[in-house]
# Entry
Amino acid sequence: MSTLEQKSANQGCHLRVNIGGLELKNPIMPASGAFGESMEKVLDFNHLGAVLPKSITKYPRKGNDTPRVCEVPAGMINSIGIQSKGLQYYLKNIVPYYQQYDTPLIASISADSVEEFVEMADILGNNPGVDALELNISCPNLKGDGLAFGMDADVTYELTKKVRGITDVPLFNKLTPNVTRIQDIALASEEGGADALTVVNTFLAMSINVHTWKPELGNVMGGISGPGVKPIIVRMIYQVYQASKLPIIGCGGVMNGEDAIEMMLAGASAVQVGTASFIKPAAMLDVLEEIKSYMQQYGINDIYDIIGKVHFNQYEEG
Amino acid sequence: MSTLEQKSANQGCHLRVNIGGLELKNPIMPASGAFGESMEKVLDFNHLGAVLPKSITKYPRKGNDTPRVCEVPAGMINSIGIQSKGLQYYLKNIVPYYQQYDTPLIASISADSVEEFVEMADILGNNPGVDALELNISCPNLKGDGLAFGMDADVTYELTKKVRGITDVPLFNKLTPNVTRIQDIALASEEGGADALTVVNTFLAMSINVHTWKPELGNVMGGISGPGVKPIIVRMIYQVYQASKLPIIGCGGVMNGEDAIEMMLAGASAVQVGTASFIKPAAMLDVLEEIKSYMQQYGINDIYDIIGKVHFNQYEEG
Amino acid sequence: MFLEDLFLLGVRVVKDQEVKILSNIQVSERYWHMVVDASGLASDVEPGQFFYIDCGQENESFLRRPFSVYRINQDDQTLEFLYLTKGLGTQALTKLKQGETVRSFGPLGQGFSLQEDAQKILLLARGVGIATLAALAQEASKKGVQCAAILSARSHNDLLAAEMLQGFGAEVHKVTEEDGTSDVENVRDIIEDITARHNIDAAYTCGSRRLSRLLQDITSKKDIPAEIALEEHMGCAMGVCYACVCDVVEDDEIRTVRVCLEGPVFPLQKVMMQP
Amino acid sequence: MFLEDLFLLGVRVVKDQEVKILSNIQVSERYWHMVVDASGLASDVEPGQFFYIDCGQENESFLRRPFSVYRINQDDQTLEFLYLTKGLGTQALTKLKQGETVRSFGPLGQGFSLQEDAQKILLLARGVGIATLAALAQEASKKGVQCAAILSARSHNDLLAAEMLQGFGAEVHKVTEEDGTSDVENVRDIIEDITARHNIDAAYTCGSRRLSRLLQDITSKKDIPAEIALEEHMGCAMGVCYACVCDVVEDDEIRTVRVCLEGPVFPLQKVMMQP
Ligand SMILES: Cc1cc2nc3c(=O)[nH]c(=O)nc-3n(C[C@H](O)[C@H](O)[C@H](O)COP(=O)(O)OP(=O)(O)OC[C@H]3O[C@@H](n4cnc5c(N)ncnc54)[C@H](O)[C@@H]3O)c2cc1C
Ligand SMILES: Cc1cc2nc3c(=O)[nH]c(=O)nc-3n(C[C@H](O)[C@H](O)[C@H](O)COP(=O)(O)OP(=O)(O)OC[C@H]3O[C@@H](n4cnc5c(N)ncnc54)[C@H](O)[C@@H]3O)c2cc1C
Ligand SMILES: Cc1cc2nc3c(=O)[nH]c(=O)nc-3n(C[C@H](O)[C@H](O)[C@H](O)COP(=O)(O)O)c2cc1C
Ligand SMILES: Cc1cc2nc3c(=O)[nH]c(=O)nc-3n(C[C@H](O)[C@H](O)[C@H](O)COP(=O)(O)O)c2cc1C
Ligand code: FES
Ligand code: FES
# Structure
């Protein structure tokens, strides 16, 4: 494997990636819901590939009952329920706030209906401060047994196509892992006109306190994130990479540079970091540094020499 | 919550459970693939609720390339590929071997077609040494991108119904977690005539070595087990408990008595222990002891006072 | 301006760093006391603020744990924590030894406000809530503000901060389940007695919903400014995840605010105490 | 009877227990040496057998790790392990300190066979493979069997067991990448030289596929009985999970057998060496 051979001189790492038309200076960005303005105190947003605030809903939302997070082995479950100040506040405060940074803003949209997605995409996608849209078609926290748009290929296709019709901004579909065949949802997104895929949102999960006999979360169920589920996600990234031509943003359980490299080898062009920022507030910058050291160690000049390069001896899937 | 109040005197725990017609002296049994004759050196099989050897295939199978296991945070991935000596060996050696124990034998069947399932169920189900059948309709290790019978409700229904037609022995369907709505597969199993549900087999997963760029497993993908995925499984047990009347055998990530209690609160009537036996060979007996201490601590006389008793303040799902 | 908008404005430096453990010892059956070197901290620490501490990710303690400062020692640049051993995190914390370091993010959140002209304040603490109020007592003592404190606990064993408070010259009342003195009505009588004898300029509470409702009731009737330090399960501890919320009433509107950023200290009257 | 059926018959007591660490020290850049109290073990330990050791589940080392016994000291009832630090597990193992205990399951597997009438044996070890062969050299020395050993390693630094073997009276040949002497052809020459000078009754190898193929070739030509200790990733280490398999040829049939139960020691001629 020649790419792994130590190259004579390392002339600096090329970390730029293009995600469905959006140019990023490096592949590291926050995961929605684990990032916000108050993190400016702990890291310089200019160092990130993109900024990606919490999913926004059309109207203000109160969110779920507390406790909203609980800890599990190698992970956590959350059921924030998308507490939100609504689109107006977002347009007036959040979008302008990020203008001060030389980093593209990806706006994550959550909505209760296809129409609402279209309406919000119209407003946000056509706002000059927004560089790309991530459609959160996968949030499992809503009532109704964790159902999400992204659990159905036809709905995904319809939704994507309608949103595509209303805006030209790069469109990223954030998929849910709670499906039988993620490839089908990936293809539905591609056919609907998405420019990239975020793989993936959280797994629907539940934890019960054996002393109180109550669920650990006020909302009973929530989404599990963190390193414990990463191997399932690496598999999904690999499957989506085989099935679809769209660039992939890997997401789930990335705690360090090697986790990010693993996702990129599986096929991700960029990587989101969520829960790791709770364990270490500046985790994103650490991940980035570790990617650079890795590339230096192995003499890899361009991050594209890693993407999708997992290597097989024998078995190739059909 | 009166069941949690300390009762005056604890007159011994009633641990007997009935799983779809099969009486077990206690709810703890091994998970298929993590148990076998050579464990007799480390624990007395008479103390278990049931014995459950590795899934058997009709013909001998070589299994997958090594490495067949790898470690991940709070878990492991395996791709054994059901190495098997075939049904004849099983009938001649395995079934008679377990006759020496006063513990029911559940035979796990794996097959490549519905017809083969029926054929094997006919032979094993009508063998007096076999007390129940577990249909492994969920093994994700087979080639073809991890597809399994249990990913499709119609196939599950057909398969179950045909097997039901051929034998009267208690029939347990082992479900796969790699589905959009596990409730649908549970109901298909119930309608097809299954007597209980094992929830669940492993999640399809993958791990890549960032230094060699190769998958950690010879088979590329495998099934992830262990405590990291337990919260997803607790959720599934709870969902299946709400949807179906069949007794549930919880399986996945049980490392100690509290994990088993958690699954029982969610709705499991019995619990399988797999990976934990790799970490601690006598884990099953420890789990059992911890369940007894727990019941004593809270003055619970009958294990049925725990099953399905997760307790809600507000939210009840529809 | 609303509570929740206030704190995006001030840019205070918060650091996540390894701090050295100077001691970490068990002080009673369920309580431990840890002293760390605070010389490397970027900002001053205020009573009521907290640190988000990595208790050690072994033992499955994956997330960090929030702990308020128990004592702030400016002279020798140390910080003290008092913690109750409860679950995985606090148990893991007890394993850390003198000389080792612990990863600690802070100081975080908004501390108590102590008016310049205050003469006498009232502290009402339940259980380990005293860990949070003690730093305030220490500051009050430094500023010459007199303190009356009511400490409520399961048992005498859990009342270990009483002597420290007395050392600060506080008038300390202890109530316990052990003595059968900790019921709300008895505490009400003690508070009524204190407020009858003294002119209380402000009241502070931490550690019990029941007692907080009581104090809310008394202080609103008597028009005494009061603050409460709240606890909620946290994810990020820096205001981005919205895990740690509670409801406050401002301008007749219910607002859901973050304990880690807008709190943990809130005006007692604004907090909607869950039943 | 086939290899794989053999071991279900004998009921040997195997225990999973906490054993006390008497020392655990770094002996070279990459190697560590651990001594444990073996007085509580249920059975005698044979060279080639291994223990399945819980290196500490912190640091994400979830599964146990297999290590063969390096020395078996019957007199003071201790066992020694020599291990190479590689990943999470072995790194976690280095953190364990004298006086602490380590959970250890064993002795497991089938050891080497050393014929009663053997006069001279040949050991061929690569890298940490010597950790597995050393116990055999120790036993040979005890039984008065002479030993010739070829130790292959990256660097001199990694040849640390050489002196111990010399202490047992072994004739030791060292080859390294550092010296450019470790190529297969040079090793072949050394083996040819040893077999020319001595009547070798049995040969044993561990640690290198390349060298094992070489030894397979030479010993089959010369009709010298030979054994190999194999390594495979393990799940259960007790023969139930079929993670640790390798292919052997018996009666012209390929059989997939378990390294943890039927091995780790196998007749060299039976093993199908992957290319
Ligand atoms: C701002 C603030 C200051 C605090 N100051 C102190 C202090 O000075 N001394 C002290 O002993 N305790 C203090 N606490 C409570 C302390 O954080 C919890 O007792 C601790 O997190 C329990 O962790 P555990 O692993 O031992 O328990 P577990 O019950 O196993 O914890 C499981 C999860 O629930 C969370 N959790 C459990 N109880 C609480 C709680 N009361 N508040 C917040 N999260 C909780 C944990 O952080 C963890 O994520 C404070 C809490 C907050 C929010
Ligand atoms: C029977 C037997 C005896 C052994 N005796 C010794 C010994 O005496 N001294 C010594 O230094 N090493 C020995 N090994 C190898 C040792 O088990 C591995 O080096 C160790 O498991 C690596 O763990 P790690 O966490 O440091 O490495 P990692 O590469 O992080 O391990 C990841 C996973 O792969 C497995 N793995 C990696 N390498 C091996 C390997 N070579 N064999 C089996 N599993 C592996 C680990 O057990 C773990 O599950 C032996 C192996 C076997 C099978
Ligand atoms: C507290 C919390 C809140 C989240 N909120 C959102 C959200 O609003 N929108 C969204 O698309 N994903 C949300 N997520 C999911 C994350 O973006 C991410 O998909 C998931 O946490 C997995 O990545 P991680 O393991 O790196 O955290 C949230 C996750 C957490 C932990
Ligand atoms: C090494 C290994 C082999 C397995 N083989 C089988 C099998 O043959 N049939 C089956 O139904 N499940 C098999 N499983 C899945 C387990 O029965 C169980 O569903 C899973 O491991 C989750 O439980 P655990 O976390 O307690 O291990 C296997 C699991 C492991 C780890
Ligand atoms: S803990 Fe994340 S907002 Fe408070
Ligand atoms: S490790 Fe399980 S059979 Fe060998």
